[in-house]
Amino acid sequence: MPEYVLYNAPQSTCSQRVRYVLHAKGREFEEHKLDLFKGDQLKPEYLKINPNGLVPALVHNGNAVIDSAVIMEYLEEILGTVSPLRPENPLEIARMRAMMRYIDEVPTPSVRVPSYNLAFLPHYQTMTEEEFIAVCDSKPLRREFLLKMGRTGFPQFEMDEALGRLRRGIERMTRWLRESGGPWLMGKDLTLADIAIMPVIVRMDDINLGHLWVDAPEISGWLDRIRTTDAFAKTYYHGALLTEKYPHLQALKTVAA
Q1: pTM of the model
Q2: CB 111 within 8 A of CB 200
Q3: pLDDT value of residue 57
Protein backbone atom coordinates (compact mmCIF):
# COMPACT_ATOMS: atom_id res chain seq x y z
CA MET A 1 0.00 0.00 0.00
CA PRO A 2 1.36 3.48 -0.89
CA GLU A 3 2.48 5.69 1.98
CA TYR A 4 0.01 8.41 1.00
CA VAL A 5 -3.47 7.78 -0.40
CA LEU A 6 -5.70 10.77 -1.09
CA TYR A 7 -9.44 10.43 -1.54
CA ASN A 8 -10.69 13.63 -3.14
CA ALA A 9 -12.61 15.23 -5.99
CA PRO A 10 -10.95 17.28 -8.77
CA GLN A 11 -13.20 20.34 -8.41
CA SER A 12 -13.45 20.27 -4.62
CA THR A 13 -11.85 23.40 -3.19
CA CYS A 14 -10.92 21.58 0.01
CA SER A 15 -9.32 18.78 -2.02
CA GLN A 16 -7.32 21.33 -4.02
CA ARG A 17 -5.72 22.66 -0.83
CA VAL A 18 -4.44 19.25 0.16
CA ARG A 19 -3.25 18.33 -3.33
CA TYR A 20 -1.25 21.54 -3.39
CA VAL A 21 0.48 20.82 -0.07
CA LEU A 22 1.34 17.28 -1.12
CA HIS A 23 2.83 18.52 -4.38
CA ALA A 24 4.65 21.40 -2.64
CA LYS A 25 6.20 18.85 -0.30
CA GLY A 26 7.18 16.68 -3.24
CA ARG A 27 5.21 13.69 -1.98
CA GLU A 28 3.99 11.03 -4.36
CA PHE A 29 0.50 9.85 -3.55
CA GLU A 30 -2.15 7.54 -4.88
CA GLU A 31 -5.15 9.64 -5.85
CA HIS A 32 -8.69 8.32 -5.73
CA LYS A 33 -11.03 10.69 -7.56
CA LEU A 34 -14.50 10.39 -6.09
CA ASP A 35 -17.59 11.25 -8.13
CA LEU A 36 -19.60 13.25 -5.65
CA PHE A 37 -22.76 13.28 -7.79
CA LYS A 38 -22.69 9.49 -7.93
CA GLY A 39 -22.38 9.44 -4.14
CA ASP A 40 -18.93 7.86 -3.93
CA GLN A 41 -18.33 9.82 -0.72
CA LEU A 42 -21.35 8.20 0.88
CA LYS A 43 -20.47 4.59 0.17
CA PRO A 44 -19.84 2.42 3.25
CA GLU A 45 -16.20 1.83 2.39
CA TYR A 46 -15.51 5.58 2.25
CA LEU A 47 -17.58 6.38 5.33
CA LYS A 48 -15.27 4.04 7.24
CA ILE A 49 -12.46 6.44 6.32
CA ASN A 50 -14.42 9.67 6.74
CA PRO A 51 -17.76 9.31 8.57
CA ASN A 52 -18.62 12.90 7.61
CA GLY A 53 -19.02 11.84 4.00
CA LEU A 54 -16.91 14.73 2.72
CA VAL A 55 -13.69 15.04 0.73
CA PRO A 56 -10.80 15.05 1.11
CA ALA A 57 -9.47 12.30 3.32
CA LEU A 58 -5.82 11.35 3.52
CA VAL A 59 -4.70 7.88 4.49
CA HIS A 60 -1.09 7.94 5.65
CA ASN A 61 0.49 4.58 6.37
CA GLY A 62 -2.98 3.13 6.87
CA ASN A 63 -4.21 5.87 9.21
CA ALA A 64 -6.95 8.27 8.14
CA VAL A 65 -6.68 12.03 8.58
CA ILE A 66 -9.77 14.08 7.67
CA ASP A 67 -10.71 17.75 7.18
CA SER A 68 -8.56 19.74 4.77
CA ALA A 69 -7.25 22.26 7.32
CA VAL A 70 -6.32 19.43 9.67
CA ILE A 71 -4.64 17.49 6.85
CA MET A 72 -2.59 20.52 5.83
CA GLU A 73 -1.35 21.01 9.39
CA TYR A 74 -0.70 17.29 9.74
CA LEU A 75 1.46 17.26 6.63
CA GLU A 76 3.37 20.25 7.96
CA GLU A 77 3.90 18.46 11.27
CA ILE A 78 5.41 15.38 9.68
CA LEU A 79 7.14 17.11 6.74
CA GLY A 80 7.99 20.49 8.23
CA THR A 81 11.59 20.42 7.08
CA VAL A 82 10.55 19.86 3.46
CA SER A 83 9.57 23.14 1.78
CA PRO A 84 8.28 24.64 5.07
CA LEU A 85 4.84 26.23 4.87
CA ARG A 86 4.63 27.49 8.45
CA PRO A 87 6.60 30.20 10.29
CA GLU A 88 8.99 29.20 13.06
CA ASN A 89 7.98 31.87 15.56
CA PRO A 90 5.06 30.71 17.79
CA LEU A 91 3.34 34.10 17.56
CA GLU A 92 3.55 33.99 13.78
CA ILE A 93 2.20 30.45 13.79
CA ALA A 94 -0.74 31.69 15.87
CA ARG A 95 -1.29 34.55 13.43
CA MET A 96 -1.25 32.12 10.51
CA ARG A 97 -3.78 29.88 12.22
CA ALA A 98 -6.02 32.87 12.93
CA MET A 99 -5.92 33.71 9.23
CA MET A 100 -6.85 30.12 8.37
CA ARG A 101 -9.72 30.19 10.85
CA TYR A 102 -11.09 33.36 9.27
CA ILE A 103 -10.69 31.87 5.79
CA ASP A 104 -12.61 28.76 6.83
CA GLU A 105 -15.40 30.73 8.50
CA VAL A 106 -16.01 33.54 5.99
CA PRO A 107 -14.90 33.19 2.33
CA THR A 108 -14.69 29.39 2.08
CA PRO A 109 -18.33 28.59 2.93
CA SER A 110 -19.51 31.72 1.10
CA VAL A 111 -18.08 30.69 -2.27
CA ARG A 112 -20.18 27.51 -2.12
CA VAL A 113 -23.40 29.50 -2.65
CA PRO A 114 -22.63 30.93 -6.10
CA SER A 115 -20.78 27.70 -6.99
CA TYR A 116 -23.84 25.56 -6.31
CA ASN A 117 -26.25 27.98 -7.98
CA LEU A 118 -24.14 28.28 -11.13
CA ALA A 119 -22.65 24.81 -11.52
CA PHE A 120 -24.40 22.16 -9.46
CA LEU A 121 -28.05 23.25 -9.42
CA PRO A 122 -28.88 21.79 -12.87
CA HIS A 123 -27.92 18.35 -11.55
CA TYR A 124 -30.33 18.60 -8.64
CA GLN A 125 -33.09 19.98 -10.87
CA THR A 126 -33.18 16.70 -12.76
CA MET A 127 -34.27 14.91 -9.56
CA THR A 128 -37.72 14.45 -8.16
CA GLU A 129 -38.41 16.14 -4.84
CA GLU A 130 -38.20 12.77 -3.09
CA GLU A 131 -34.83 12.00 -4.68
CA PHE A 132 -33.51 15.43 -3.72
CA ILE A 133 -34.59 15.06 -0.08
CA ALA A 134 -32.98 11.63 0.03
CA VAL A 135 -29.70 13.13 -1.19
CA CYS A 136 -29.92 15.90 1.42
CA ASP A 137 -30.60 13.39 4.19
CA SER A 138 -27.60 11.33 3.12
CA LYS A 139 -25.18 14.23 3.65
CA PRO A 140 -24.67 14.73 7.41
CA LEU A 141 -22.63 17.95 7.11
CA ARG A 142 -24.33 19.49 4.05
CA ARG A 143 -28.00 18.62 4.67
CA GLU A 144 -29.23 22.05 5.74
CA PHE A 145 -27.11 23.80 3.12
CA LEU A 146 -28.68 21.76 0.31
CA LEU A 147 -32.19 22.15 1.71
CA LYS A 148 -31.74 25.93 1.67
CA MET A 149 -30.75 25.74 -1.99
CA GLY A 150 -33.61 23.44 -2.90
CA ARG A 151 -34.24 22.54 -6.50
CA THR A 152 -34.77 26.17 -7.52
CA GLY A 153 -31.47 27.53 -6.25
CA PHE A 154 -30.50 29.89 -3.48
CA PRO A 155 -32.73 32.97 -3.41
CA GLN A 156 -31.25 36.36 -4.28
CA PHE A 157 -30.87 37.44 -0.67
CA GLU A 158 -28.72 34.37 0.01
CA MET A 159 -26.57 35.15 -3.02
CA ASP A 160 -26.25 38.78 -1.93
CA GLU A 161 -25.24 37.72 1.56
CA ALA A 162 -22.61 35.32 0.21
CA LEU A 163 -21.20 37.95 -2.14
CA GLY A 164 -21.05 40.41 0.75
CA ARG A 165 -19.04 37.93 2.80
CA LEU A 166 -16.74 37.29 -0.17
CA ARG A 167 -16.16 41.05 -0.52
CA ARG A 168 -15.22 41.23 3.14
CA GLY A 169 -12.89 38.28 2.63
CA ILE A 170 -11.20 40.08 -0.27
CA GLU A 171 -10.86 43.23 1.85
CA ARG A 172 -9.27 41.25 4.67
CA MET A 173 -6.89 39.46 2.29
CA THR A 174 -5.91 42.78 0.71
CA ARG A 175 -5.13 44.19 4.14
CA TRP A 176 -2.98 41.18 4.99
CA LEU A 177 -0.98 41.60 1.79
CA ARG A 178 -0.52 45.32 2.34
CA GLU A 179 0.51 44.89 5.96
CA SER A 180 2.97 42.10 5.18
CA GLY A 181 4.42 43.85 2.16
CA GLY A 182 3.86 40.66 0.14
CA PRO A 183 4.37 38.83 -2.01
CA TRP A 184 2.47 36.39 0.23
CA LEU A 185 -0.04 36.86 3.02
CA MET A 186 2.61 36.73 5.72
CA GLY A 187 5.44 38.33 3.79
CA LYS A 188 8.25 36.77 1.79
CA ASP A 189 7.35 33.13 2.46
CA LEU A 190 4.38 31.13 1.20
CA THR A 191 2.42 29.63 4.12
CA LEU A 192 -0.56 27.40 4.75
CA ALA A 193 -2.69 30.57 4.96
CA ASP A 194 -2.02 31.28 1.28
CA ILE A 195 -2.88 27.71 0.37
CA ALA A 196 -6.05 27.84 2.47
CA ILE A 197 -7.48 30.77 0.52
CA MET A 198 -6.05 29.76 -2.87
CA PRO A 199 -9.04 27.62 -3.99
CA VAL A 200 -11.48 30.39 -3.04
CA ILE A 201 -9.72 32.99 -5.19
CA VAL A 202 -9.22 30.54 -8.06
CA ARG A 203 -12.91 29.55 -7.89
CA MET A 204 -14.05 33.18 -7.81
CA ASP A 205 -11.93 33.97 -10.85
CA ASP A 206 -13.26 30.88 -12.61
CA ILE A 207 -16.94 31.77 -12.11
CA ASN A 208 -16.67 35.45 -13.04
CA LEU A 209 -16.34 36.96 -9.59
CA GLY A 210 -12.88 38.39 -10.19
CA HIS A 211 -14.47 41.84 -10.45
CA LEU A 212 -14.70 41.82 -6.66
CA TRP A 213 -11.00 42.71 -6.50
CA VAL A 214 -10.90 45.17 -9.41
CA ASP A 215 -9.77 47.85 -6.95
CA ALA A 216 -7.25 45.58 -5.24
CA PRO A 217 -4.33 44.84 -7.60
CA GLU A 218 -2.68 43.04 -4.69
CA ILE A 219 -5.11 40.14 -5.19
CA SER A 220 -4.46 39.90 -8.93
CA GLY A 221 -0.71 39.94 -8.29
CA TRP A 222 -1.02 37.27 -5.63
CA LEU A 223 -3.10 35.06 -7.95
CA ASP A 224 -0.59 35.46 -10.78
CA ARG A 225 2.26 34.49 -8.43
CA ILE A 226 0.65 31.37 -7.00
CA ARG A 227 -0.26 30.21 -10.49
CA THR A 228 3.44 30.19 -11.39
CA THR A 229 4.41 27.86 -8.53
CA ASP A 230 5.31 24.29 -9.50
CA ALA A 231 2.62 22.78 -7.27
CA PHE A 232 -0.19 24.81 -8.87
CA ALA A 233 -0.19 23.16 -12.30
CA LYS A 234 -0.05 19.72 -10.70
CA THR A 235 -2.95 20.61 -8.40
CA TYR A 236 -5.14 22.16 -11.07
CA TYR A 237 -4.91 19.45 -13.70
CA HIS A 238 -7.48 19.57 -16.50
CA GLY A 239 -10.95 19.13 -15.06
CA ALA A 240 -10.18 20.76 -11.71
CA LEU A 241 -11.90 24.01 -12.67
CA LEU A 242 -15.69 24.21 -12.83
CA THR A 243 -15.55 25.79 -16.28
CA GLU A 244 -13.63 22.75 -17.53
CA LYS A 245 -16.27 20.34 -16.28
CA TYR A 246 -19.42 22.35 -16.99
CA PRO A 247 -19.51 23.77 -20.55
CA HIS A 248 -22.41 26.10 -19.75
CA LEU A 249 -20.16 27.93 -17.28
CA GLN A 250 -17.45 28.36 -19.90
CA ALA A 251 -20.07 29.83 -22.22
CA LEU A 252 -21.10 32.32 -19.54
CA LYS A 253 -17.49 33.26 -18.93
CA THR A 254 -16.97 33.86 -22.64
CA VAL A 255 -20.04 36.11 -22.74
CA ALA A 256 -18.89 38.03 -19.67
CA ALA A 257 -15.45 38.58 -21.19
Answers
A1: 0.93
A2: yes
A3: 98
